[in-house]
Amino acid sequence: MAGDKKQVESITSMKEDFAQWYTDVVTKAELIDYSSVKGLMVMRPYGFAIWENIQKELDSRFKATGHENVQMPMLIPESLLQKEKDHVEGFAPEVAWVTMGGSEELAERLCVRPTSETLFCEHWQHVVHSWRDLPKLYNQWCSVLRWEKTTRPFLRGREFLWQEGHTLHATAEEAMEETLRMLEIYADVAENCLAMPVIRGRKTDKEKFAGAEATYTIECMMHDHKALQGGTSHYFGDGFAKAFDICFADKQNKLTAPHQTSWGMSTRIIGGLIMTHGDDNGLVLPPKIAPVQIVIVPVASHKQGVTEAAQELCGKLKEAGLRVKLDDSDQSPGWKYAEHEMKGVPLRLELGPRDIAQGVCVMARRDNSDKVTASLEGIEKSCADMLDAIQADMYSRALENLKGNIRPAYSLEEAAEIISTKGGFIKSMWCGGLECELKMKDVAGVSSRCMPFEQEHLGDVCPICGKPAVTSIIWGVAY
Amino acid sequence: MAGDKKQVESITSMKEDFAQWYTDVVTKAELIDYSSVKGLMVMRPYGFAIWENIQKELDSRFKATGHENVQMPMLIPESLLQKEKDHVEGFAPEVAWVTMGGSEELAERLCVRPTSETLFCEHWQHVVHSWRDLPKLYNQWCSVLRWEKTTRPFLRGREFLWQEGHTLHATAEEAMEETLRMLEIYADVAENCLAMPVIRGRKTDKEKFAGAEATYTIECMMHDHKALQGGTSHYFGDGFAKAFDICFADKQNKLTAPHQTSWGMSTRIIGGLIMTHGDDNGLVLPPKIAPVQIVIVPVASHKQGVTEAAQELCGKLKEAGLRVKLDDSDQSPGWKYAEHEMKGVPLRLELGPRDIAQGVCVMARRDNSDKVTASLEGIEKSCADMLDAIQADMYSRALENLKGNIRPAYSLEEAAEIISTKGGFIKSMWCGGLECELKMKDVAGVSSRCMPFEQEHLGDVCPICGKPAVTSIIWGVAY
Q1: Which of A150, A175, A187, A316 could bridge A259 with an S-S bond, Cβ 3.0-4.6 Å?
Q2: Which of residues 253-312 of B touch A (CB under 8 A)?
Q3: B31 in any annotated domain
Q4: Choice between B317 and B6, residue whose per-residue pLDDT is larger
Q5: What string of DSSP letters covers A425-447?
Q6: Who contacts B184 (Cβ-Cβ below 8 Å, separation ≥6)?
Q7: CA B167 to CA B259: how far, in whole Å?
Q8: pLDDT at residue A276 above 80?
Q9: Residue A122 forms part of a structural domain
Q10: B414 and B373 in a common domain
Q11: What percentage of chain A exceeds 70 in pLDDT?
């Protein structure tokens, strides 16, 4: 084994230091590299390939529900950003400003988009005139800037990649339906592709998007029992439309303001993916999203026929539509095992002279370390079945983690006690008041995650103020 | 026909005002909308769908030749941009500067990437150490900013979308092979997907990319016989590697500087597509790139069975893998014909009660206005064949335009005379001197397009200075 190639080093264990474990994984699995600008990172091929697979899943669902991709400008004039009052208050403190073009000072400074509601509104004001022009069902893939103070790869960047959907509808009902439809698409991709179970719900007014009437969210639980917001969908009513003077002639030729939504999922979800499934050997990727689903490692590849058999096996699996990689580099099998474990490849096939003689190979699962011997006859089906099993088992384990770490609290003190001793999510009733929400943060250190669609009756009163409860709510410490 | 939907208006004719014709097409075919920032545009769904199809063609070819997608930061610190001297001289005058983050002045100003060589180099300096780490074959899809003075949709924007490939190789030979391989991929996509014939060649030193040792180009001819640079591929030697301190241990463990390339194609090519194929009725799109290849227009759709027959036809063609749209809106057939002609849909199928009774439909070609009647039996094959014929004919006509408008010039005066009376490209011999290149610009108003790979012997001396010629060269007025 050559000494000039990096060794696969062990990483910090989760228990020892979860934050350091995370940093080790994102760098040693070669997902990212740091750039010289704080909060801006390089997505390396393996990291970007994960994003491309998530993009494919989302984009096909967007298109199947009638959405069209567009591209808005990257820069927003300050005056345009200021048109909707709540929106600018929410975003102005954290935007990056372009003030010079070449050697000239700009007459008006331009911010690099932190989100594009204002740009979509400006465009719609130009092109929407009649009920025939509605609905507009648009989506954009791009990167945005938000000048955050503290940053972490994927989880909180000054730049991140995302998609932002923006839609405009003739009626409030249609817009609300769209808002919930898109939330369900996020939940579908999270649960069925990323193997990340989610809680669907509505954000409190305190936590909703700047300018929205209502924000809906999918909330995920990480290995350390903290919360990660996986995607959000916003209902705007006609507030933006009125601020931007968008109106259309309805079928009775009456001028009406349309209703609007937006929804986004970002590369942040990759951070969630890592912290949901990873372990002390590195990344663990669900087969549906893994850039490489199967790695073939030849054993004793200098022996006659091993390389050829490995190539044949690789070709067979590729033909069956599986994403497979043959690692025929000159590293040792042990080095390769560690490397592909670090990268979270769901399934490893080991193939040596004795296996070949017996017409078998060894299948090693990444998610639970099980090893079985499988016949090369029909190996495509065995692999496909195994990948399905891995996907399902990963979801089940994550669901168990989520369910096992939501605890009811019937008083502020109980909530604080649970958080300080056990962590996880708290569920409780709530009066709907901002004051109680702030008190919960103060005393127990948790923020509201959402008012879940699946409501529970945990009592009649708010455990914080004792007034009548209007909803059940989930609390947690969030990334 | 309802009055609240925009009428399909006629557009300025090409002969009357080519520039206005172009502007009419990009707006009335709903490719773009202007934003409130000069030079930044909205790519509307139809325009973006064309780009998505071009992306698919390029991306699959990049991946088939072993390239991986990555994402670099959007911002470049001033000090990083300045590391390669020629590069910064070329780009510094036209970049947009971010100077504030939130309400704070930045310690160092950051430019929005005009191109990403410096970022790739910074990353490679971190991760390339050994011959095992090479080659790096990377590509990035993104948007970039260049603060141009004059702007036109697609052709010259302060923001444009593109892909930029960046590769790093152990040897100069490998890097040069890569440079030419990628140019050939651009030529392939231009000729075989966009039906745009190209001249492949090398740029003069004056016209090459800032920091490159050699730039290769594909040059296209527009309807007005002006030139458009369709894509470029650059060979950098080891200049950037040395400036950024990238080196690797070769197999003999000797530290060596790697060799580098970059190559890009942008949304500019859509401007070229429009000006290569469009006509006085609007856009004309080649079938391989058209978002909608076939539009079905029912005639007398209120009559029994027409809508159903149109839907059945649509389903049949979709199943055959064709991109087909049924226009069942309540506009008149005439309005629809004009609308889809404006949008350049390659093939229109008209279907009325009489056609249905006879088991036929009318096929109308966009590119040459031919109309034929075809049996509904086997219509999938008739359509597929017709689309192939349209694609081939569009290429042939464009090639004829190109070939018919390149004229040899044997003196500076002859060149000037040809340009002022006939326009088009000039071909001549050239001594290789910058002075002659500048003189040609001065006297005939043309810039050098490229030294074509297909060299011609048009004499022994440079027609400008009379010194011995070293190459044949193409001149033209360029977009």
Answers
A1: A175
A2: 253
A3: yes
A4: B317
A5: EEEEEE---HHHHHHHHHHH--E
A6: B200
A7: 8
A8: yes
A9: yes
A10: no
A11: 98
Write out chain B residues lying below 8 Å of A94, CB-based.
102
Question: Which spans in A193-259 are helix H?
Answer: 239-243
Same domain, A51 and A160: yes
| Beta carbons of B294 and B344 less than 8 angstroms apart | no
Distance between CA atoms of B428 and B435, rounded to whole angstroms? 15
Residue A314 predicted with pLDDT over 80 = yes
Q: How many angstroms separate the CA atoms of A366 and A361, rounded? A: 16
User: Would you call B236 helix, strand, or coil by DSSP?
Assistant: strand
Element (H, E) at B160: strand B159-169
Which residue's entry shows tokens 């530290």? B255
Q: For residue A276, give the amino acid letter.
A: T
Angle at B477 (CA atoms; ends B474, B479), nearest 5 degrees: 115
Q: pLDDT band at B9, cuts 50/70/90?
A: low
B294-298 β-sheet, strand order: B324-326, B294-298, B347-351, B360-365, B371-375
The answer to whether residue A119 scores a pLDDT higher than 60 is yes
Q: Tell whether A246 lies on the interface with B, counting CB pairs under 8 A.
A: no
A112/B109 touch (CB, cutoff 8 Å), yes or no: no
Taking the Cβ of residue A123 and every Cβ of chain B, the question of whether any pair is shorter than 8 Å is answered with yes
Tell whether A365 and A419 lie within a shared domain: no
Q: Is A247 on the interface with B (CB under 8 A)?
A: no
Compare CB distances from A70 to B44, B96, B130 and report the shortest one's residue: B44
- The whole-model pTM stands at 0.96
Contacting residues for B4 by C-beta, under 8 A, at least 6 apart: A129, A130, A131, A132, A249, A253
Model confidence pLDDT, tens digit, residues B256-303 = 999 999 999 999 999 999 999 999 999 999 999 999 999 999 998 888
Residue A221 counted as domain residue: yes
Kindly state whether residue B321 falls inside one of the protein's structural domains: yes
Interface predicted TM-score of the whole assembly (ipTM), two decimals: 0.95
Amino acid at A151: T
Contacts of A256 in chain B (CB under 8 A): none
DSSP tag of B222: -
**Nearest residue in A to B255, CA atom:** A4
Q: Give the residue carrying structure tokens 């249609």.
A: A174
- Same domain as B118, residue B43: yes
| B371 exposure class (CB count in 10 Å sphere: 0-12, 13-18, 19+) | exposed
Chains A & B: contacts with CB separation below 8 Å: 171
What is the least distance, in Å, from the CA of B199 to any CA of chain A? 31
Residue A7 CB neighbours (<10 A) = 11
Decide if B105 touches A, using CB distance below 8 A.
no
| Nearest one of A238, A108, A115 to B36, comparing CA atoms | A108
Give A302's pLDDT tier (boundaries 50, 70, 90). Answer: confident
Which pLDDT belongs to residue B2? 38
Cα(A238)–Cα(A258) distance, rounded to whole angstroms?
6
Contact B37 A77 (CB under 8 A): yes
Local structure of B228: helix, strand or coil: strand
Chain B residues touching A133 at Cβ < 8 A? 5
How much is the average pLDDT of A187-192?
98
Q: Hey, is the C-beta of B42 within 8 angstroms of any chain A C-beta?
A: yes
B342 and B29 Cβ atoms separated by less than 8 Å: yes
Strand boundaries in A273-423, DSSP class E:
294-298, 324-326, 347-351, 360-365, 371-375, 406-408
Closest chain A C-alpha to B128 CA, distance in angstroms: 10
Please say if the pLDDT value at position A360 is more than 70: yes
- Determine contact: B444 vs chain A, CB below 8 A: no
Compute the distance between CA of residue A309 and CA of residue A356 in angstroms, rounded to an integer.
7
CATH number, residue B76? 3.30.930.10
**Closest to A74 (Cβ–Cβ): which among B4, B100, B143?**
B143
First to last CA, chain B: 40
